[in-house]
Every structure is written in structure tokens, then in C-alpha cells.
Amino acid sequence: MAIQLRLLHYTLFPFLLIAASVNANQRPGSLPLRNDSAAVRFASTDFGNLVHEIPSSVLFPTSVDDIVDLIKLSNHKDDHLLRGIAARGHGHSVRGQAMARGGVVVNMASLNSSGNGARIQVFRDKKLGFYTDVGGEQLWIDVLRATLRQGLAPESWTDYLYITVGGTLSNAGVNGQTFLHGPQISNVLELDVITGKGKLMTCSKHKNPDLFFGVLGGLGQFGIITRARIPLAKAPTRVKWAFVVYSNFSEFSRDQEKLIASTMAPAPDYVEGHLVTNENITLQWRSQFSSPSNQSAIADLLKKQRILYAIEVVKFYHNNTPASPPIDKEFERLLKQLSFIPSFVFSRDVSYFDFLTRLPNLDNLPAPIPFHPWLNLFIPKSRISDFNAAVLAGMLPTLPPNPSAFYLLYPTNRNKWDDRMLAVTPDEQVFYVLGLLHTSTTSDNAEILKFNDEVMRICRKKGIQVKQYFPHYESKKEWINHFGPKWTIMKHKKAIFDPKRILSPGQGIFNHV
Ligand code: FAD
């Protein structure tokens, strides 16, 4: 049936209403689409500031049905919306993954416009225990606040919480707790998903598992997550938190691997490694540890060798008063098993909430807005020393000193990942998560992009089988290589759930095919 579109412009209220005659399954009426310059500009930017794709319009849904209707309309073969629909979580991608050139960007935050917290609810079930049902558009910071009110919290987090549930579940959601609890995609009981055909489906490991395992880590290719059911545990109240420094890479990596092993006792709750190439790096983000004298000692060490390594190790505990003696002793026992430079240990005791929210909201960065040409990799443990020699010790210190740069390297356990999902990891039991979280300006951005390319070139040359996290590739061949044996599954699921290849075109996966 032919669809007739009638576009009405409202000058006072800049909504572009699309009235359409639709088939029997579609909700007749109008969609809250906007194509004014503010809406278009908003949807053509992201945290990376490297890619700017102009959509034809932006949907500000007030209900899940608005998104269902949009996707149904787009499935009509004559419709211009077929150019693509991208859910935009919080736009914290760095390579335009939540954009849709010439298509429609769905501003997921609008689902939350009532602001009454109704889209984060906590339940208790005899079989499932405590869990929360949260809208896909919800920020993790709000999930934390709402669940903590009941003394509960999810167990798997990202380091930064001003990103959405749907956005991280489309990737993996990792941090220093992943070795213990798995990535966020391993911590989901059930999802509501609108497929690329415009069908709203509930899925779990047992119900529509093909969709469930496709959507988790599926880079937004099969459906838009509108609800996620996430298990909750009793939330710790306090955190013992230490930052220890190494000059030797072998000791740094050996200690990190020891810390994440199941045999470690007492076991930590969080382990992340840092790469320090200039003394200012320890001053920013979560470096509340350093005093000016530490800074000069670190600067002295950096003069001797151009890179230092640090481990951030954490133990949670349940106590309303800081530092009761048993946890102090336990934490001391844990640190005693590590081989860091003895005088370089900085520790703190903070609330669980303060620890999880240690990274501030970066929404309103002052102008000029910087670029974030990030490179995130998963590196097999067997090649981590080679990677360190060639890239970390070999190349990283050659970059111009940048106090805003942030470099992470920590191991995690593959057995906490579910291989039925499409998130791709190296094929080894332990692999490292690397985050080269560069910040750049117009003067050094090209140099950093070139640096990232060079890292990838060296890995290819040396046969280090890294996998990109938040992958960005220019060609079909590279995507096939990225997914390896999962490419066939990817294509199969795309044909079933989004046969017209409508969803998340900004990932650039099926645009080459
Ligand atoms: P967007 O960038 O808006 O979207 C990402 C992709 O998911 C797009 O393809 C989009 O179309 C799709 N998508 C969005 N919402 C949905 C939905 N509801 N259903 C289906 N598809 C959807 N990641 C980690 O794993 N660990 C970290 O510690 C971490 N720290 C970060 C710190 C900062 C400062 C920043 C900027 C990012 C960090 N990230 C981290 C990366 C973050 O996980 C990604 O940016 C991710 O894409 C989530 O961001 P978002 O919610 O803004 O999603």
C-alpha cells in the first residue's frame, strides 16, 4: 500500500509532524520528528567530534510505539527513511556510530521526558531475586541512584556512568570488575527490543534467544533496546581503594594477572592498570591520590624511563563507618602480595557511590570542543609483552605530552563472556583491555589518528591478534576479519531481524555489503 507523507511545519513549536496513512498494523497518527537546525546539529555530533553525519530528521519519541511506528514506516520500500535509523543513547560514541546520514536519529532520552523515574523500577522475585527493569535510554548514573535507594546495585559497571543502558549493552560495557562479574552484556536477564522490522519483542536466554544473543554486543544492528532487566545484589557501602606504581612491565602484568585469578586470596573487587607517560596524568580523572611530592617523584622516575605503570586495586565492604580493622588488615594482606615500588602506594577509603561516580559528567566540555580519537583494543595475554615493547614503551611516550590523555590496560577473564553474543574478543582465556583515550585539538588530531593507524599496522605486522572494542572499519573485508567465524551469524541475524538494513547505519557494518 502506498504511503502518502504530509509534512507540516510548525513555526512556534518546531516539530515536523509526519502524518501517514499506514497499514493495519501501524499506529495511525503523527510522529514527533524534528528537522530544525538545533535538532539536526545535536544528532550529527558525538563525543568523538570526528564524524558529523547530517540526518534528515530526529525522532523525539514520547513512547515506545513512536519508535515502532517509525521503523514500520521505514520498512516501506518507497520511503526515504529507509536510509537508516540510529538510536542515539547519549551520543558518547567516538566515530559516529549513533548517526544516520540522510536518515532518522532516534533521541532515546525523550522516552524519559516525564522525568518521574517510572522507567527504572526495582522488583523482587522468588526465582530471580532482586532485579531492576530499566528503559534502554536510562543513564547508568540514574540506575545507580535509583537502586542504591533500596540498598541494591548491579554488579557490572563501566567506569563512566553518563552513558546509556542501551548504548553499553550494544557494545559490552567493561571495567575493572569485568574479570569477576563479566561485561554488562553478561548481566542481563531479559530485554524488550524493537527489531528492524518494527516488531516489539521480549527476549531472554530462553525466549527468542536468537534476538537476545544478537542484540547484546550486536552494535545496534538487530533492534532497539527499550527495556533491560538487570539483576541486583546487595550494594557494598564502602571501598578500599589503592593506586600502586611499577617501573617494570613484567611485574605490572604479572601482578594484574595474579589479582584477577580465581586463586587470589583475599580477592579484589576491581582491578585496572594505567599507563603513565607524563607526571600530569596522575593529576586528572581519578587521581585524587597524588600529592605534589608524589608528582615530583613520578617526574623523576619518568626521566629515567619514559613510561610507568600503575594498578588501581579495590576491595568493597559493607560497613557504614570507614575502615573497620578487619577490612584494613585484609586489604593490607592483598597489597602485600604485589611487587610495586614500595614508596609508591596511595590509598583511600571512600563510599561505594563516590567510587562508582569518580568520573565527572563530561557533557558540557568548554569550547573549543576537543576531539577524542580513542583507540580501544582487546589484546591476547600471550602477546602482551610484545605489545608493550612495540607500542606502549615503544611508541606512547613519543606522543606530545597531553595532561588530558588517559591510558588504561587491564586483564580480564574470557570465561565471563558468553560466546553466543556477537561481541568479539581474542581467542584466549585471559585478554587485556586497552583504552588509549586521547584528547586532541586541530593542531595534533591528525598526528594521533596516524598514531592509532600505526598501532594497528604494527599489530598486523607482528601477528598480534587484537580485536577492536567500539570497532571502526572502513571496508567490508576488515569487518569480516573482525567478526571472524561470527560474521556468518551476524549476516544471518541481520537478514532475520533487520532485512532492509535500516538500523545503526553509523556503525558502517552493512553499508559495504
Ligand atoms: P551511543 O553512543 O548513543 O550509541 C552507541 C551505539 O549503540 C550506536 O550504534 C547506537 O545506534 C546504539 N544504541 C544506542 N542506544 C541503543 C538502544 N537503546 N538500543 C540499541 N542500540 C542502541 N565503555 C565501556 O565499556 N567502559 C567504560 O568504562 C567506558 N567509559 C567511557 C567513558 C567516557 C568518558 C565515554 C565518552 C565513553 C565511555 N565508554 C565506556 C564507551 C561507551 O560505552 C560507549 O560510548 C557506548 O556507545 C555508550 O554510549 P551511549 O550510551 O552514549 O551510546
Brief synopsis:
With 513 residues, this protein is α+β, with helices and mostly antiparallel strands. The chain has helices at residues 37-43, 64-74, 140-148, 165-169, 178-181, 209-215, 249-260, 292-304, 325-336, 352-356, 384-392, 445-462, 476-483, 486-497, and strands at 5-9, 16-20, 29-34, 57-59, 85-88, 104-107, 120-125, 129-135, 152-153, 190-195, 200-203, 223-231, 233-234, 238-246, 270-276, 308-317, 345-351, 375-380, 406-413, 430-437, 467-469.
Attribute tags:
alpha+beta, 26% helix, Vanillyl-alcohol Oxidase, Chain A, domain 3, Uridine Diphospho-n-acetylenolpyruvylglucosamine Reductase, domain 3, 513 residues, Uridine Diphospho-n-acetylenolpyruvylglucosamine Reductase, domain 2, globular, five-stranded antiparallel sheet, six-stranded mixed sheet, binds flavin-adenine dinucleotide
SSE order and pairing:
Elements: E1 5-9, E2 16-20, E3 29-34, H1 37-43, E4 57-59, H2 64-74, E5 85-88, E6 104-107, E7 120-125, E8 129-135, H3 140-148, E9 152-153, H4 165-169, H5 178-181, E10 190-195, E11 200-203, H6 209-215, E12 223-231, E13 233-234, E14 238-246, H7 249-260, E15 270-276, H8 292-304, E16 308-317, H9 325-336, E17 345-351, H10 352-356, E18 375-380, H11 384-392, E19 406-413, E20 430-437, H12 445-462, E21 467-469, H13 476-483, H14 486-497
Parallel strand pairs: 4-6, 5-6
Antiparallel strand pairs: 1-2, 2-3, 3-4, 7-8, 8-12, 9-13, 10-11, 10-12, 14-16, 14-17, 15-16, 18-20, 18-21, 19-20
This protein binds flavin-adenine dinucleotide (FAD).
Residues 47, 86-93, 97-98, 108, 136, 158-160, 163-164, 166-168, 170-175, 219-220, 224-225, 362, 504, 506-507 line the site of flavin-adenine dinucleotide.
